[in-house]
């Protein structure tokens, strides 16, 4: 799970070696060699996944059935405000109601009709909807949060799709595996089931730019209370080891995803260090 940037080791350029914002959760911020290769040889984070690639044609056919106008029939004068649709970098058509199209394609991905490793990026300013299904994209899993625009759903706006019942079933399967007990196949509940049910979603660096991700489910609850008009007091306790929280931005419209755990930004070697978020003993 090691990556290599093909740049000459003897170069004195600092920029390719520095940590970038888009590396969050995808590349370990600590695990890199010292010396000439520092910052050029990187290691993937714990829950990273590299896409293997799926064909883009079924997605194009699905969007045509949802009202996409193919490029050969597009007349710019008739619909100048239409949103351009790209599949793996190729302009395939336009659509006049991109909000509904993006929602439909996202639901098909969460319902496992199209592959979970397909990325959907809607750029509202440039009026573009980009879809990537090619191989070699580094992705990471996140919990899905209900944004409030999904039709026919039992979830309220700001609710995690993950429920306590799902966590209990995961725990029971894990404990049975540890004890060597037999569980029938239909009663087993694993990570792949979370993906199939649309509770966990894989996002790449580009789709993450269009997502609003909160750090913990606790932050999500505080956000919901503040949005409902409740005054949540700041916890200024004396606990020296408490987590530093970022101030909530009052302009935050909605959350779309939630981090699984903050420690998932680390790679394999960094994650076995005890208390990596504390100072070293001098």
TrEMBL record:
The molecular function terms in GO held by this entry are: DNA binding; DNA-directed RNA polymerase activity; ribonucleoside binding
Entry EC number(s): 2.7.7.6
- Looking at the record's lineage, which domain of life comes first? Eukaryota
- What InterPro entries does the record point to? DNA-dir_RNA_pol_su2 (IPR015712), RNA_pol_Rpb2_3 (IPR007645), RNA_pol_Rpb2_4 (IPR007646), RNA_pol_Rpb2_5 (IPR007647)
The RNA polymerase Rpb2 domain is annotated at: 1-50, 85-146, 191-262
Q: What class of enzyme is it?
A: transferase
Gene3D superfamilies in the record: 3.90.1070.20
- What Pfam families does the record point to? RNA_pol_Rpb2_3, RNA_pol_Rpb2_4, RNA_pol_Rpb2_5
Keywords per UniProt:
DNA-directed RNA polymerase, Nucleotidyltransferase, Transcription, Transferase
* GO CC terms: DNA-directed RNA polymerase complex
For the keyword Nucleotidyltransferase, the answer is yes
Q: Which GO terms describe its biological process?
A: DNA-templated transcription
Q: Which family does it belong to?
A: Belongs to the RNA polymerase beta chain family.
Q: What is this protein called?
A: DNA-directed RNA polymerase
Q: Which gene encodes it?
A: RPB2
